[in-house]
Amino acid sequence: MKKSKIVQINNSYIQNQREKSKLTLAEKRQKNRFMASILILVVFLFILPTYNLVQSYQTLKDRESQLVELENQYQNLVAEQEERAALVKQLENEDFAAKYVRAKYQWSKEGEFIYNIPGILPQ
């Protein structure tokens, strides 16, 4: 084995410099840990509002779809109400009411025969 030709000086100056470099390295590690903890805290603080925002957006979209469904139901009910109002107005006429009852409920006068034809009966 060869001996190294490099001689390391081990005096008080070198030892002081090593201690300073160790302290500097320890300070850097401590600063890095502190910055990492702050970064984690900041990320956490941004995640919570983002989650709440996404949840609120989903709720809003659900409510919008419910609103559309309810508006469709409302339109259907309005149309049905108009049809029934028209039927009530027509039923005020005695001739129409008699025809309606005879067709819908197969009511007949004495001696009459009733033949059902699909699609002709009023609703």
TrEMBL record:
<keyword id="KW-0175">Coiled coil</keyword>
<dbReference type="InterPro" id="IPR007060">
    <property type="entry name" value="FtsL/DivIC"/>
</dbReference>
<dbReference type="GO" id="GO:0051301">
    <property type="term" value="P:cell division"/>
</dbReference>
<protein>
    <submittedName>
        <fullName>Septum formation initiator family protein</fullName>
    </submittedName>
</protein>
<keyword id="KW-0812">Transmembrane</keyword>
<feature type="coiled-coil region">
    <location>
        <begin position="53"/>
        <end position="94"/>
    </location>
</feature>
<keyword id="KW-1133">Transmembrane helix</keyword>
<keyword id="KW-0472">Membrane</keyword>
<dbReference type="InterPro" id="IPR039076">
    <property type="entry name" value="DivIC"/>
</dbReference>
<dbReference type="Pfam" id="PF04977">
    <property type="entry name" value="DivIC"/>
</dbReference>
<feature type="transmembrane region" description="Helical">
    <location>
        <begin position="34"/>
        <end position="54"/>
    </location>
</feature>
